[in-house]
Model the fold of this input.
Amino acid sequence: MLSRRLMSLTPYVPGEQPRDRSYLKLNTNESPYPPSPRIEAFLRSYDISLLRLYPDPWSLSLRQTMAKKYGLTEDHIFVGNGSDEILSFVWYAFFDGQYGRLLFPQYTYSFYPVYCDYYDISYRRIPVNPDFSLNVDALIGNEGDPSCGIVFPNPNAPTGIALPLDKIRDLLERYPQDRVVVIDEAYIDFGGESAVGLISSHENLLIVRTCSKSFSLAGLRLGYAMGSPGLIRALFITKDSFNSYTVGRLTQAIGEIALEDEDWFADKIARIIEVRTFFSAALEEQNWQVLPSKANFVFARKPGETGQRVYERLKERGILVRYFNVEGIRDFVRITIGTREDMNRLLEETKSLF
Ligand SMILES: *Cc1c(COP(=O)(O)O)cnc(C)c1O
Done:
């Protein structure tokens, strides 16, 4: 009854979305702030008879809005039902095990090996530097062990550490131009340097973004990718061989509204960065080690505790964080930046518990 393909899959396990009681959720990097209020005004006046009709399979108006925002043309933009869906298309379209293994960092987004499993692509985890920053020399690999592509988040997850633009430029200059380099910029808006400006000079660069974090729209499911028109065409071929209508009408319209509300965006980003700075210093004050984060979360450890124990004790107190049962980062927890009140509540608990 089940395919052999299915039986060999190990799915990704998303962060808990519990229903048993109400928790302070600092475990899935959602925003603590509601999205742009313009969305509410739009929904109140929306003509629901439009929902009879299929959405634009090209999401043209949304892609034009994005193109304008990033100084590109719409043939450089692809949109999808969350960036996870786009990543799945990326694996299908660009990574071919015949040309070698896919390279990604030792500690990184745990969905990447799941896609490799799904599409039967072997991969190599590249060791990071002792301070957890990405090692560009190692990421490029060597000629004796060819690779079919590179993927990494910038800033990296779950460490929060950003790779500076000059290192990205160096990587792109040294890596074969006929292999795709994917930068997952899910957290770039919180202080990293985007590689969007390198698209025009590197046809093999694809940048993947999401509206889930910095736009407070995790419930909407909207992601986008930016790259040369050849890469974008390949993503459309992949999508249109799978589902023509991955992005609904309401999602396309709301995405446009959210992307255009620059004042809302600037205010929320500034607040999260401010709270992150305050919270990191306060945790250090309590003798935690906190990695320097450019994301909307911090990766931290209290010497003498394991990540699992910190997670369990905080959960008893009604606060959810995330730990990873992975050699080398077992002592850390990843803590999403909430409001200042959220972080003060957490700091009270960490102070008394650990
Ligand atoms: C959250 C996250 C995503 C997924 O974003 P969605 O658009 O919600 O699917 C992708 N990559 C990284 C590194 C993330 O942290």
